[in-house]
């Protein structure tokens, strides 16, 4: 049981403004189900917020075999500035990611290879698109 707003963020679908780094992180490692809400009156003393019960079922492993640290750093860079596009956030990624981006021709090339429109924002990407993007970074390491 967590605060309802936290559960809403964890279970947010692609395209929702509630979607963020936490959503993608949890989605990569768990299957999630929001079960039900709990009113403040169910507690003594009553809190000022609603709660929700969420079911998290851990996956045996991530759906796609990618370097976990690199995956998390790509997602983190993607959400670095929420109002910016995925292209701009990757262009301003930390130096470690830039070392992988530049030899591949830049962020726009990588996004095109991943079939992700550069003007999209991070919250619109599905978990499959994040994994596809991470796999491209994996391919860049071997070059």
Structure description:
The model has no long low-confidence stretch (mean pLDDT 93). 43% of the residues lie in helices and 13% in strands. Helix 3 packs across helix 7. 24% of the residues are buried. The chain is elongated and about 60 Å long. By secondary structure, it is an alpha+beta fold. It contains seven helices and three strands; from the N terminus they run E-H-H-E-E-H-H-H-H-H.
What's the quick description here?
This protein has 143 residues and is an alpha+beta fold.
List keywords for this structure.
7 helices, alpha+beta, 143 residues, three-stranded antiparallel β-sheet
Give the neighbour order of strands across the main sheet: 1-3-2
Separate helix tally = 7
Major β-sheet, in short? 3 strands, antiparallel
Report Rg. Answer: 17 Å
The count of DSSP E runs of length 2 or more, i.e. the number of strands, is 3
Order of helices and strands: EHHEEHHHHH
From the helix content, strand content and strand pairing, which structural class follows?
Answer: alpha+beta
Shape: elongated
How big a fraction of the residues is strand? 5-15%
Distance between the first and last residues' Cα: 46 Å
Poorly predicted parts:
none
Kindly state the percentage of residues in helix.
40-55%
Rounded average pLDDT: 93
């Amino acid at each position: 049981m967590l605060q309802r707003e936290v559960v809403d963020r964890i279970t947010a679908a692609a395209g929702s403004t509630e979607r963020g780094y936490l959503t993608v992180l949890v989605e990569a490692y768990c299957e999630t189900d929001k079960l039900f809400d709990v009113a403040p009156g169910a507690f003594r003393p009553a809190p000022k917020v609603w709660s929700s019960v969420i079911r998290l079922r851990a996956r045996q492993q991530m759906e796609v075999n990618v370097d976990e640290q690199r995956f998390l750093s790509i997602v983190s860079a993607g959400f670095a500035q929420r109002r910016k596009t995925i292209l701009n956030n990757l262009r301003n990624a930390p130096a470690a990611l830039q070392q992988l981006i530049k030899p591949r021709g830049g962020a726009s090339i990588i996004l095109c290879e991943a079939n992700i429109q550069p003007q999209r924002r991070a919250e619109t990407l599905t978990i499959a698109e994040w994994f596809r993007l991470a796999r491209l970074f994996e391919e860049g390491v071997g070059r």
